[in-house]
């Protein structure tokens, strides 16, 4: 364990009053976990089990808020990201380097593989909206390359290239609001069964065969790279040199209380839409494209367009946050400043975006890399939860370390992370 923190970790008085905003770094977390994977998982949950598993989404929102509050508090109090704090927390070389290498493997390499899915999901939504245009049809027929993957990957790179945290945050806030309008609008158009929805939210049941879906719903929300993203984002949003720590923590908690539940509401809207379109019907849902196509005869074109727009926003938001989180994690682990314009930072996120664009535009699915990423993430999640709990109980955090209730909630989430880890590893090794 480290016994020293930089001098600038002491609380400072506000030099300039922080701008009030309901949405901030927690929006990056929402943008990260509402991606194509969540859309697919929530759609299948609604199609197969109706509203019965909505309670699992509520629990996942609760667990995410517990972990993200700790990560944001750590970033604000120390002025550093989670990667930098891990370097300070774990000083024993036999433990330190395996942990840091695992973070690189799970987040940098893993996100390179998953980025293809993020961009493919965004491209699927864009194609549903604009694929009928003659220029797009001619491009696809003549080249066989997914034009939307190239355009959306380029857009993600442009947002990150400017290297301004405020710009990135504003873009992601816009995408989260767009997702909210699209998916919640789709849910309203499909006229959900409100009685069944509230019953599924507050009366936990696990229908036969639904246990893996429950774990998957939680696992698509509670993800390790969001902790790196949030800690670094909070440290940059509320710099210690400018904003009093107590003021920053209050703003951060308000941010979390709005942004994370908003993400949960989006997931519930997706479950509700799929339940209205498929649950209790003979037709089985196999993919999100099928869900979008099925909405037109049932609920009209508006529902299909809203779902496609939401899917495009979900894929694009994750296509921005996944490379950003990887760059934060790698820079922090290597002890480099979290400067978005430094060469290492830019090379990290650029590598991940290029990998995602190539995989999505050429239709390649890197099975072996995804398998490796599943194993690495399955091991990493409980380890990061444990390290975060240890960090939040360090004496050097002073009055900002965890209290008994925060530790109790943290241990509960740690136990859940062990369940998610077991599920991820079981699925990965089942592919062998």
UniProtKB/TrEMBL annotation:
Protein keywords: Membrane, Symport, Transmembrane, Transmembrane helix, Transport
Biased composition (Polar residues): 1-18
UniProt membrane topology term: Multi-pass membrane protein
Disordered: region residues: 1-21
Gene Ontology annotations of biological process type: iron ion transmembrane transport
Record Pfam families: Nramp (PF01566)
Predominant cellular place of this UniProt entry's protein: membrane
Keyword presence, Nucleotide-binding: no
Subcellular location field: Membrane
Membrane-crossing residue ranges in chain numbering: 21-43, 49-67, 94-114, 145-163, 170-190, 210-235, 256-279, 302-335, 347-373, 379-397, 409-431
GO cellular component: plasma membrane
GO molecular function: cadmium ion transmembrane transporter activity; manganese ion transmembrane transporter activity; symporter activity
InterPro entries to which the protein is assigned, alphabetical: NRAMP_fam
Cited NCBIfam families: Nramp_1
Protein name: NRAMP (Natural resistance-associated macrophage protein) metal ion transporters
Native organism: Rheinheimera pacifica
Taxonomic lineage: Bacteria, Pseudomonadati, Pseudomonadota, Gammaproteobacteria, Chromatiales
């Amino acid at each position: 364990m480290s016994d020293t923190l930089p001098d600038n970790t002491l609380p400072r008085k506000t030099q300039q009053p922080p701008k009030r905003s309901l949405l901030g770094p927690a929006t990056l977390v929402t943008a990260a976990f509402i991606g194509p994977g969540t859309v697919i998982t929530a759609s299948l949950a609604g199609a197969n089990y109706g509203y019965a598993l909505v309670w699992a989404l509520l629990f996942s929102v609760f667990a995410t808020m517990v972990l993200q509050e700790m990560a944001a508090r750590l970033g604000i109090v120390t002025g550093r990201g989670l990667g930098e704090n891990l370097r300070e927390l774990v000083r024993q070389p036999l433990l330190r380097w395996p942990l840091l290498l695992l973070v690189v493997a799970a987040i940098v390499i893993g996100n390179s593989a998953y980025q293809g899915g993020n961009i493919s999901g965004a491209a699927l939504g864009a194609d549903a909206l604009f694929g009928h245009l003659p220029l797009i049809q001619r491009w696809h027929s003549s080249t066989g390359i997914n034009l939307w993957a190239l355009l959306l990957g380029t857009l993600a790179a442009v947002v990150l290239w400017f290297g301004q945290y405020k710009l990135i945050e504003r873009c992601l806030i816009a995408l989260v609001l767009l997702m909210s309008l699209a998916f919640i609008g789709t849910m309203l158009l499909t006229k959900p069964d409100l009685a069944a929805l509230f019953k599924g939210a507050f009366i936990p049941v696990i229908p036969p065969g639904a246990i893996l879906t429950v774990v998957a719903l939680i696992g698509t929300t509670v993800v390790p790279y969001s902790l790196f993203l949030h800690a670094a984002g909070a440290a940059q949003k509320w710099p210690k040199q400018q904003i009093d720590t107590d003021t920053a923590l209050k703003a951060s908690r308000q941010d979390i209380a709005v942004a994370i539940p908003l993400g949960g509401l989006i997931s519930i809207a997706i479950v509700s839409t799929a339940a209205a379109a498929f649950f209790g019907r003979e037709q089985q849902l196999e993919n999100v494209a099928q869900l979008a196509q099925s909405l037109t005869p049932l609920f009209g074109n508006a529902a299909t367009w809203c779902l496609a727009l939401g899917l495009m926003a979900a894929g694009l938001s994750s296509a921005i946050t996944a490379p950003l989180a990887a760059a934060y994690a790698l820079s922090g682990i290597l002890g480099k400043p979290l400067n978005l314009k430094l060469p290492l930072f830019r090379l990290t996120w650029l590598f991940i975006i290029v990998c995602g664009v190539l995989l999505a535009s050429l239709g390649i699915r890197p099975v072996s890399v995804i398998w490796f990423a599943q194993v690495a993430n399955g091991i990493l999640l409980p380890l990061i939860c444990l390290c975060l709990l240890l960090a939040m109980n360090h004496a050097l955090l002073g009055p900002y370390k965890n209290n008994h209730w925060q530790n109790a909630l943290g241990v509960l989430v740690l136990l859940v992370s062990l369940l998610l880890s077991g599920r991820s590893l079981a699925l990965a090794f089942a592919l062998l």
